[in-house]
Amino acid sequence: MFKTNLCNLLNIEYPLLQGAMAWIAGGQLASAVSQAGGLGVIGTGNADASWLKQQIDIARTMTDKAFAVNLMLASPYIEEVVDLTIKEKISIVTTGGGNPGIYMERFKKAEIKVIPVVASLALAKRLVRLGADAMIVEGMESGGHVGEMTTMCLVPMIADAVDIPVIAAGGIADGRGFMAALALGAQGVQVGTRFVCARECNVHLAYQEKIIKARDRATVVCGASTGHPVRAIHNKFTRQYLQAETQGSSKEELEILGRGKYPAAAVEGDVEFGSVLAGQISGLVSEIQTAEEIVMDIIQGAVKIKRRWEDMQCQE
Ligand code: TUI
């Protein structure tokens, strides 16, 4: 029912991508989402090529369907991760945290579809010229590294300006968000935070519980003073970090304060002194479900809305 051009481009049943979450989205989650008809994504973050190889192998034992690899462009291992992605013949790549321009030619030559994440109109236009196949337009409601624009404002602006499929991200976790994104001009959505609470996700249980307990104002943005704002659930770590920022700590001091905080929360489960990256939509996520249940709930929720709209038209 929601077959858009994006589905044909990526050979997927539903126009629904799983967000690439560093330390969280491994091969098991990515394969479960692809198996359910969406597009699963392995999030590399700052991981090296040997970690990525393990995750690709895990995903390939669990599904025959395609999945993507996300490249975090600021990673110190970016070169070896790009090399491995090409060598392993991954068919779709998403990118984040920068401009993937310098890798475009190699991806094109290897017939890899490139879907960059953008948080501004200027970069969106530049990436169309560089040959992006689609783009993920990410609003500041998202978890993790964020831009300044909201999904509601940025998606229609970019959808009007580019002639490739737009995928909306940030603040989407159910059928209502899915339909809203299509109404804004997107051909699909990317969902991150809700998939953190997937049964197949290898994140620590305490992290999932933190998201499930979160209410509307649970997240804050830290690090604006460093030029790399990051959204996370408010806890003892964010309180300490924001206090340091207010008191004028230097970039170096803040870097030391933040070191190792992603794995501390995601892997070790220290959800008070670690950084629990999550989007504003955390307040809407209320249970742990399988990836398939999440995909089907979003799509069936969207189908119900579409039917309701069609019934409204009949009554007019
Ligand atoms: O990348 C994300 N979110 C992330 S990555 C991450 S892990 C990490 N690890 C170590 C250091 C930093 C992060 C946690 N969350 N989202 C995609 C995204 N990309 N959001 C915003 C952007 C972005 C920002 C600037 C994309 C392009 C860009 O380009 C600047 C330019 O014009 O060159």
Fill in the keyword field for this structure.
three-stranded antiparallel beta sheet; binds ligand TUI; TIM Barrel; alpha/beta; eight-stranded parallel beta sheet; 2 domains; 316 residues
Please describe what this structure looks like:
- It is a single chain.
- The protein is α/β, with parallel strands linked by helices.
- The protein folds into two domains: 12-202 and 284-309, TIM Barrel (Alpha-Beta Barrel), CATH 3.20.20.70; 215-277, no CATH class.
- Helix content is 43%, strand content 14%.
- It is built from 14 helices and eleven strands.
- It has helices at residues 5-10, 27-35, 49-62, 78-87, 104-109, 121-129, 151-161, 175-183, 193-196, 205-213, 236-246, 251-258, 261-266, 291-315, and strands spanning 16-18, 41-43, 68-72, 92-96, 113-118, 135-138, 144-145, 166-169, 188-191, 219-222, 230-233.
- The strands form two sheets. An eight-stranded parallel beta sheet has the order 1-9-8-6-5-4-3-2. A three-stranded antiparallel beta sheet has the order 7-11-10, with helices on one face.
- Helix 2 runs parallel beside helix 3 and helix 8 crosses helix 14 (291-315).
- The longest helix has 25 residues, at 291-315.
- The two termini are 23 Å apart.
- Bound molecules: ligand TUI.
- Residues 22, 45-46, 72, 74, 96-99, 117-119, 123, 138, 144-147, 277 line the site of ligand TUI.
